[in-house]
Amino acid sequence: MGARTAEERRREIVRVARATGSVDVTALAADLGVAKETVRRDLRALEDHGLVRRTHGGACPVESAGFETTLAHRATSHVPEKRRIAAAAAELLGDAETVFVDEGFTPQLIAAALPTDRPLTVVTASLPVAGALAGSGNVSVLLLGGRVRPGTLATVDHWTTKMLAGFVVDLAYLGANGISREYGLTTPDPAVGEVKAQAVRAARRTVFVGVHTKFGAVGFCRFAEVGALDTIVTSTLLPAAEAHRYALLGPQVVRV
After folding, report:
1. pTM for this structure?
2. Interval 84-93 mean pLDDT
């Protein structure tokens, strides 16, 4: 690749991270022709700028106003962890009769895990969720209308939020691109944030579902405080001490 400036190197690291979902220090050092310590320094700088999050031996990209992973990518990352989280979240249904299911791959897994042996009304902006549940005999599906975002196959904008504002749901299952104690729940796109904020307002009970990598990540648009959540469902890959810090803000934290 030839000699390049630190700025060029860092741009290349971000590009690779976004294209592949993660980067490895050893591989980057070889590809860029620099020492591992140089790569680690680059990753620290990129993390300080909110572009990547360092992991053991490498880094993964942070979703931002300029970059968001697609549903297709989400369907291939952390899948066993997402399945465990979805199963535990579905068990929180209780006697809820009306449920909001958010866009995203983990909420899709929750929809698939919901019981179909009793009447249930599901409100969603997600085309895949609506499609998966529409054939179930006891499930009534209300698909929120609006503009469909291609990457996530979910509806947004004023049509969506206006329709959602007319409902009160027993339980909302919410995802986010990031959750932090300081900034709450965030997402890169303002239009998506509006729908999620409206879902929080519409729900009697709110459950956040997310893999461990979402914690500490901060996106562009805030749509809820941690204290607005009743329950957080994540995995044991989130350290118990960190889970406790979130629990102190109000929600019950379930690790599976």
Report:
1. 0.78
2. 97
